[in-house]
Design a protein that fits this description.
With 113 residues, this protein is mainly beta. 0% of the residues lie in helices and 48% in strands. It has a six-stranded mixed beta sheet, with no helix packed on it.
Length: 113
């Protein structure tokens, strides 16, 4: 079955960086768009970044220039490099591919001084 396993979260201070990873399984990874979503405390889950099968990328305005999404189809893995993290980036981060219902457990990112 389709599975997503996120890792790499942690607690950092404002201005620091983190790279989160997600290993997907159960479908032909290279043929599908992969997204990173996040859900902050008291907020709805939101799309943060997306990378297509042709490697085209999309970012929400609040992370443009700070976050970088990438994928390695040989490892069925999608990454999110997060630089200059700010307290408002505090959230649980999830990867997902649109046609599938499954979601992983996510990985927690906390930014505070």
């Amino acid at each position: 079955q389709v599975q997503f396993v996120e890792s790499g979260g942690g607690s950092v201070q404002p201005g620091e960086s983190l790279k989160v990873s997600c290993v997907a399984s159960g479908f032909p990874f290279g043929s599908y768009t992969m997204n990173w979503h996040r859900q902050g405390p008291g907020k709805e889950r939101e799309l943060v970044a997306s990378i297509g099968q042709n490697y085209a990328t999309y970012y929400i305005d609040s992370v443009k220039g700070r976050f970088l999404i990438s994928r390695d189809n040989t490892k069925n893995t999608v990454y999110l490099q997060m630089n200059n993290l700010q307290p408002e980036d505090t959230a649980r981060y999830y990867c997902h591919s649109p046609p599938f219902a499954a979601w992983g457990q996510g990985t927690q990112v906390t930014v505070s001084s």
